[in-house]
Specification:
The complex is a heterodimer of chains A (375) and B (283). Chain A is α+β, with helices and mostly antiparallel strands. Chain A has eight helices and 20 strands. Chain B is mainly α and 283 residues long. Chain B has one domain: Orthogonal Bundle (MetI-like fold), CATH 1.10.3720. The relative contact order of chain B is 0.14. The chains are: A alpha+beta (375), B mainly alpha (283). The interface between A and B is medium-sized, with 27 and 18 residues.
Chain lengths: 375, 283
């Protein structure tokens, strides 16, 4: 018996094209009413998975349930699901109204109700004043709204969005992020979005599934993905991260120490780390969690042992600065010539002038900040 | 004078604005003249009030009335139009289906079939003509059927070389079809057939119209294949004109040809209008 809260259940689904597994044994549950994102680089299988949910591909193995019903072999026109395609696929020979009304004829909606429902759907996407337009007289953003209205007017149980923002220009893309989440809250339909853009997924989704080479790497809410990535791929794919290979040397319930040849030192964790000690391990530190202090005092470099026990300190020289307005990104070279990336918010109008090229700096981060990662 | 100066003035132009170049304009003019001068001469002399066709003697419509009085020419024109319409109808159906099948499905020997479709286009007409003649002789196709069945050989022969043109044009059109349109229709609840009818056919429509026009004009002016395929009693317009010209080029022929040009131009304009309907005014 399926959980009442689960609208889509994907059970051990595999899709093979010849010998290649585009989707490799994926199991996933999507909850009713949530905004879910399938996130991953191109070729990771996210679009294939979306097409299997829509019904355009049939799983080689495994089952897909929608609202408790096994739809693995149900054709797309019989599924309670609608899709907004990447190209929007607004029918060019029909007016906006006819596009939106197209799907209703198959649901046996009386003509009189059709008008009401189409106009209500167009009002939801703020296009009710353009019902008579032809698609070629509209902008890309407007065509996307037509595609949204056309899918939502069918009152689907799930709305699938294939790279919904990829064809829009930067400003509109940002505006549409907010609009799509607002629309989702308004209509209350479960949204499942496919995207390769991690910012988009983090900004819009309630939960994300990160995929890589057909496999599911992690399913979590955006902040967990960013702050507690469960493996090296997720840490590297979501946001920016400094990764150093090494091994655990102290593994206690209350704290841990990680030695990295690459980093040229030890990293201290102020908490116990889970996961067995293993040869292929990495420590990951987010650039914004590193504090940069100017090295003014002449004197010897403080050794790790001299540092406060809950803090990590490394020495370096600023080699590159990339000023982004709201923040600056610094590439700091460690004594062993490895690069550590550090970001620093420009809180005042003069903050970017605090550091310049070839400055000697201390890099500090709290024992709570690094994450231990496995492959 | 000022305009003449402007015409010869070398305006600054970007490297890709070829059309602003005087030499190119002159070249285009020469090409257009070369293309259309013979037709213009033909049309002008169809209004010439003289039995001889090379000296202008004044304006008249009498050759047009002569055309309509000439029973043989009238019959030939009627035959040609009937053949063209029948050939177009069947070619459009066959060509569109062939194009769709080649676009949509993968099957063994598809490549062979696709290249084979080009064969009637590249094979010399004279070979096609002889082939058609022998084919119907071998079938013992009856030659003495009443109108319009006596045209059946010509119609079949015309379909043979006209439908590949429709197939090629429609096929090319289908290449630009975004498969997400069809997926969207299915996604919205349409069956395969409904998606075909509602989305794919409207996309093919301009190709179908262009292909139909091509089939129509090809059939209307075909001489060689028709010559071999026609039975003893059947005459089409090009064959009739040929037999008239064998004695002398009369203004009557000019007038009849002008009518054919008019029909072709009207068909073309209609087809273009169908492909790009004038934009409806929106308020």
């Amino acid at each position: 018996m399926a959980n009442d809260d689960v609208i889509i259940k994907i059970e051990n689904v595999t899709k093979r094209y010849g010998k290649v597994a585009a989707v490799d044994n994926v199991s996933l549950e999507i909850k009713r009413g949530e905004f879910f994102a399938l996130l991953g680089p191109s070729g990771c299988g996210k679009t294939t998975l979306l097409r299997m949910i829509a019904g355009f591909e049939v799983p080689t193995e495994g089952k897909i349930f929608i609202d408790g019903v096994d739809v693995s072999n149900v054709p797309p026109n019989k599924r309670p699901i609608n899709t907004v395609f990447q190209s929007y696929a607004v029918f060019p020979h029909m007016s906006v109204f006819d596009n939106v009304a197209y799907g209703l004829q198959f649901d046996n909606v009386p003509k009189a109700d059709q008008y009401q429902r189409v106009m209500a759907a167009l009002a939801d996407v703020k296009l009710d004043h353009l019902a008579d337009r032809k698609p070629d007289q509209m902008s890309g953003g407007q065509r996307q709204r037509v595609a949204l209205a056309r899918a939502l007017v069918k009152r689907p149980k799930v709305l699938l969005l294939d790279e919904p923002l990829s064809a829009l220009d930067a400003k509109l893309r940002e505006a549409m992020r907010f609009e799509l989440t607002a629309l989702q809250e308004k209509v209350g339909v479960t949204f499942v979005m496919v995207t390769h853009d991690q910012d988009e997924a983090l900004a819009m989704a309630d939960r994300c599934a990160v995929m890589e080479r057909g496999r599911l790497m992690q399913t979590a809410n955006p902040s967990s993905l960013y702050e507690f990535p469960s493996n090296r791929f997720v840490a590297d794919f979501i946001g920016s991260v400094n990764l150093f290979a090494g091994k655990l040397v102290v593994d206690e319930p209350s704290h841990a120490q990680f030695y990295s040849e690459e980093l040229g030192g030890k990293v201290f964790f102020d908490h116990g780390v889970s996961g067995a000690a293993n040869e292929n391990m990495w420590v990951g530190i987010r650039p914004e969690k590193i504090e940069m202090i100017k090295h003014v005092k002449k004197g010897p470099t403080p050794a790790m042992e001299d540092c406060p026990p809950d803090c990590n300190v490394f020495k370096g020289v600023i080699k590159q600065i990339s000023y982004l307005g709201s923040e600056s990104v610094y590439e700091v070279m460690l004594p062993n010539e490895r690069i550590m990336r550090v970001t620093r918010p420009n809180l005042s109008r003069w903050d970017q002038e605090d550091f310049t090229w070839d400055d000697e700096v201390w890099l500090c981060f709290h024992g709570d900040s690094p994450v231990l990662l496995q492959n | 004078m000022a305009s003449l100066q402007r015409f010869f003035k070398r305006e600054p132009r970007a490297p890709l604005e070829y059309i602003k170049s005087f030499r190119l304009r002159a070249w285009i003019g020469a090409v257009l003249l070369f293309l259309y001068a013979p037709l213009l001469v033909l049309i002008v002399f169809s209004f010439n009030d003289s039995k001889r066709t090379i000296v202008w003697k004044g304006f008249t419509f009498k050759w047009y009335s002569k055309v309509f009085e000439n029973e043989g020419l009238r019959e030939a024109l009627g035959n040609s139009l009937f053949i063209a319409v029948a050939c177009t109808a069947v070619s459009v159906l066959l060509g569109t289906l062939a194009a769709f099948v080649l676009w949509r499905f993968k099957f063994p020997l598809k490549g062979l079939l696709e290249s084979g479709l080009n064969l009637p286009i590249v094979v010399p007409e004279i070979c096609m003509g002889v082939g058609v003649l022998m084919f119907f002789a071998w079938l013992k196709w009856p030659n003495d059927m009443p109108w319009p069945l006596n045209l059946s050989q010509i119609i079949i022969a015309h379909i043979t070389f006209a439908f590949p043109f429709v197939a090629i044009v429609v096929r090319a059109r289908l290449e630009s079809f975004n498969k997400e349109y069809e997926m969207a229709a299915l996604d919205l609840g349409a069956s395969q057939w409904q998606a075909f009818k509602d989305v794919i056919v409207p996309h093919m429509a301009p190709g179908i119209v262009a292909g139909a026009l091509l089939a129509f004009t090809l059939s209307l002016d075909d001489f060689v294949i028709t010559f071999f395929a026609s039975g003893p009693g059947t005459v089409t317009f090009p064959i009739k004109v040929y037999s008239m010209v064998r004695f002398s080029v009369t203004p009557e022929v000019n007038a009849a040809s002008t009518i054919i040009i008019l029909i072709t131009v009207l068909a073309t304009v209609a087809a273009m209008r169908l492909q790009n309907p004038p934009k409806p005014t929106t308020n």
